[in-house]
Design goal:
12% strand
Amino acid sequence: MNNIIEEKDLMLSFVCERGSYIGITGFAYSEYPIKGKEKIIGIMKHFQRLNLISECSANAYKVSYLLHIEASELLSKGGFKAQEELLQANIEKLLLEIEDLKPSLPHKAETITSIAAGIATAAGLLFGK
């Protein structure tokens, strides 16, 4: 699995376990489950863009945030790893469906093959295959 996915899932678990829906909470960088101030801030800002948290602010000592229920929902559904696995499964299913279409549409076989190759290339970039 992608290392950033693992780190985002660790951070998601942390913010859900330690955060609050009703008040801003802040934690020192050393308390977060991953190391590196820039990486922690980057992931927290990413969470804010995804509406998992708000009021995200960082200073020299800590990062503060307000937890949203969307973060807990994502965690309960398996987090970022589950999202990646679902996307991969959907791409693989789409590739199989495209292969099934080829015999029924011989005049479009070249186009279908080109689309399938593009999807396979994108899947390789996303999932390292």
